[in-house]
Amino acid sequence: MRKLADITTDAGTIHPRLPGYLASMTGHCPYLGPSMSRNLTLWCGYEASPDDRPELLGLLVKSAENVRAVRREHGQLACANIAIYGPTDIPSAQAVLDWPHWITRKLYAPVQLMIGKFYIGEQEDDKYGTPIAPPPISFFSIRHSTPAKDARFLANLPGVAAQLAKADEDNRDVLMPVLGVPCTPETAASRYADLVRLFPAEQKVAT
Predict the structure, then answer these.
(1) Which is nearest to 177 in space by CA: 110, 86, 95?
(2) Pairing between strand 79-85 and 41-47?
(3) Can you name the residues that pair with 83 across neighbouring β-strands?
(4) What is the DSSP code (8-state) at residue 86?
(5) Which of 9, 33, 93, 109 is disulfide-compatible with 138, CB 3.0–4.6 A?
């Protein structure tokens, strides 16, 4: 895995079409505009392949812990995004993003963090049936979760929805209960295979 863009609030340095994409997304996400206006929406960029998934998991853990720290100091608008260069379509993006995303989502749901993933070119509609602009690059997004607002995204993942519904940010170590070791990016990466076994993909339900 190779870092291509340092942490920044300027999404245009990550991808030239990201600012336009984010402007369109403010109409679908009520928190994005206020977060960006307070310089609490951060971006970085990495080139990654499926072989980099353990290291990518470590990066997600590091970013999630940073969001927790910023949330404690600046409130619930803290948001970190990791752009993933390399995938050029949805299948190739899924091969890179899916497992690190799923593991991190399961680790951090109990402390009320929402871990999102967005595939390059993905076509979706919002809850009103309005088309959402396709992302110009694949990326992860880490932010505070408001269960009532996130329910639509998790309707077919009842286990995660249940975790978020009773979540509490009590500063717990998210790895200790599942692996018995302190949470560090290095530990998460080195125990990637164990975490895949501990968090089998949740069976989605029809919606």
Answers:
(1) 110
(2) parallel
(3) 45, 139
(4) S
(5) 93
